[in-house]
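Lab meeting tomorrow. Look over both lines:
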Amino acid sequence: MTTLDSGYHHRRGTARMSDAEFRREYEFARAAIDQVDAVIRQLDELRVALGLSKAQLARSIGKDPAALRRLFSAEVNPELKTVAALASALDAELRIVSRKHRRLVSKKELAGVD
């Protein structure tokens, strides 16, 4: 069995992360990818809870079943229109919630303030 020496890549990645501008851009991109992944995971959980196959869901929004399978199984950047159509087909809605607003609401709820 041949092992891959990833030491070079690890050292290169560590060096690049020490560059503040690179690190900032990397963290921004990572956060965006994580948010897209979270939305897709939640849509897939709704699909499963409703007992729909990926093919059934794909047909309900006029998409190719293979494209929908890729959407749920690979790191892709789906069109917002597709995400909205999936949410609608699953009887769900998309919302954008300000993190700052959410923290304020949570504090008010804890304090019993309306």
